[in-house]
Amino acid sequence: MKWAVVRFPGSLDDNDALYALRNVLGQDASLVWHKNESLGDVECIVLPGGFSYGDYLRCGAIARFSPVMKSVAKFAADGGLVLGI
């Protein structure tokens, strides 16, 4: 299975998720920067926890405007697997 781990400014656990996917589960996984518009050819997406953009407003309030989120929303709407931490 091919995975994408989305990285936002201030997010935590993205490196841990990437490590677990690659080294523990033996999966093909890559980091996707929040400014990317494309997720690439993936079968599952991980949205790590933490404080995206510092969570000055509330969790994910600013992160939802990141270019990658349009692709994440479409991926999920089309039945893709999304894991939120």
Describe the protein.
Helix content is 25%, strand content 24%. It has 2 helices and 4 strands; from the N terminus they run βαββαβ. The chain starts with a strand and ends with a strand. The protein has a single domain, classed as 3-Layer(aba) Sandwich (Rossmann fold). It has helices at residues 14-24, 68-77; strands at 2-7, 28-33, 44-47, 81-84. The relative contact order is 0.27. The chain is an alpha/beta fold and 85 residues long. The protein has a 4-stranded parallel β-sheet, with helices on both faces. The mean pLDDT is 87. The chain is globular.
Count every helix, treating DSSP H or I runs of 4 or more residues as helices: 2
Give me the Rg, rounded.
12 Å
Which H/E pattern describes the elements?
EHEEHE
Beginning-to-end CA distance, first to last residue: 19 Å
Oligomer: single chain
Provide the structure class.
alpha/beta
Architecture in CATH?
Answer: 3-Layer(aba) Sandwich
Give the biggest beta sheet. 4 strands, parallel
Number of domains: 1
CATH topology (fold) name? Rossmann fold
Task: Write the topology of this structure.
Elements: E1 2-7, H1 14-24, E2 28-33, E3 44-47, H2 68-77, E4 81-84
Parallel strand pairs: 1-2, 1-3, 3-4
